[in-house]
Amino acid sequence: MQKTLLSLVAAFALCLYSAFAVFPSEGACNAQQPPLSSYLSAQEKDALATRLQRLSLLKPLKEAAKGDLLDPMENLGLVRAGFELMTRLLYLPDNLQTDYVDEDGVKGVWQSLPGSRSDRVLLYLHGGAYIMGSPSTAACVSTRLAELMGIRCFSVDYRLAPEHPFPAAIEDAVAAYKWLLAKGYKAENIVLAGDSAGGGLSLALLLKLRDEGAPLPAAALLFSPWTDLSVSLEAHKLNYDPMFTPDLIRRAKEVYLNGASAKMPYASPYYGNFKGLPPLFFQVGSNELLFDDAAQTARKAGLAGVYTQFEVWPGYFHVFQMYNDSLAGGLKALDSGASFLNDAMDKKLLE
Question: Is the distance from CB of 226 to CB of 202 less than 8 angstroms?
Fold first, then answer.
C-alpha cells in the first residue's frame, strides 16, 4: 500500500516537474511553442524550485515514478487522494474562513476573508475530469479569485463519476445556483467561475438556466474549460500537455457520460447554442490538450452575439492559475479575471 501511494504521488510530482520546467530537458511542451522556462524570470524559477523542495521526497519520488505507475481509472480512490495531497501545497490565505454546507440537497463550501462583501458571491465549480476534485483541490484558485474580487465564494461539492455519472454534476450545479437565489442573492450579483471540467460545467449551467428561463448570473470566467467530451477537436490529437494525455480524458469522459451522448450540450457545451448568455471570459495556456475547447468555444460564443473575451498565455499549461503564488502569470491571469467579473457586476463591460 505504501509503495502504491508513493507511486501515485510520484506521478503528480512528475506533472509538477514537467509543468514548471524544473528539469527543462524533460519538459513536456508543444513543439511549436517554447517551454515555460523561457518565459520565467530567475526569481520565478527560484520560487518554483523552493516550493517543490518543500517535499523532501521529491528526488526519490521522481525516481520511483520511472517504474510501473498506477492505472488511474482502476485506482480512482488513490488518485483522488493524491490530487487532494498535491493541491495542499498550493496557496491559501492565512485568514481564510470556511464553512461546509449540506442543505436542501446542496453541498459545498463557503470561502470568505474578513471584509468580503456579503451581497455578492462567486459560484465556483472545480475541475478534475468529473471523476475527482473537490472544493479543497480548487481552493488555491477560488479563494485567491474571491480575495482579489473582495467577495465571498461558494464552491460546489458536486457529485462525481463513476458513482454519480451524467447528469449528476449539472443537476448539482443548477441546484446550487438556485439555492443562492433562494438565499436572497440577486442574479446580477452572482458570477460563475470554473476550471477544466468545472469550466465546461459552468458553461453547461448557463445553457441549462437559460433554457429553463431562470435569471442568469452576471458573467462567467472559464479557466481551460473542457467543453467537447467527444474529444474530437484538433488539439485533442496532440500529446504535449504536461498534466494529462488524450487517452486519460477519453477514459474519463466514458466514465462520466455512462452511455449518454458526448454531443449533448449539457455535457459538451461546445455543441450548444450560446445565444442570450451573459459575458464570458476564457483563459487558456498555449501548451494545452484543451486549447481548442477554449478557443473554438469562445469563437462560437462570440459569433452568437455573446460578449466574449479570450486570453492565451504563451508557454503555459493546463489551469496554470493554480500556481498563483509561484508564477507571476498565474496571479496576473486571476487579477484579469477578477476585474472582468467585478466589471460585469458593475455593468462596466460595455462602457
Answer: no
Collect all residues with Cβ–Cβ distance below 8 Å to 184 and sequence separation of at least 6: none
Residue 92: closest CA among 40, 52, 19, 146: 146
Amino acid present at 29: C
Q: Are 13 and 5 in contact (CB under 8 A)?
A: no
- Tell me the average pLDDT across 129-157: 96
Contact between 293 and 228 (Cβ < 8 Å)? yes
pLDDT digits (tens, 9 = 90+) for 229-249: 999 988 887 756 767 778 888
pLDDT digits (tens, 9 = 90+) for 166-187: 999 999 999 999 999 999 999 9
DSSP code at position 220: E
The whole-angstrom separation of Cα 191 and Cα 122 is 5
Give dist(CA 334, CA 116) in Å, integer: 17
Are 52 and 58 spatial neighbours (Cβ–Cβ below 8 Å)?
yes
Active site residues: 196, 288, 318
Q: Nearest-CA neighbor of 192 among 16, 344, 24?
A: 344
The pTM assigned to this predicted structure is: 0.84
Contacts of 114 (CB under 8 A, 6+ apart): 95, 97
Beta-strand relationship, 106-112 and 117-125: unpaired
For the chain, percent of residues with pLDDT exceeding 90 = 63
Cβ atoms 303, 310 nearer than 8 A: no
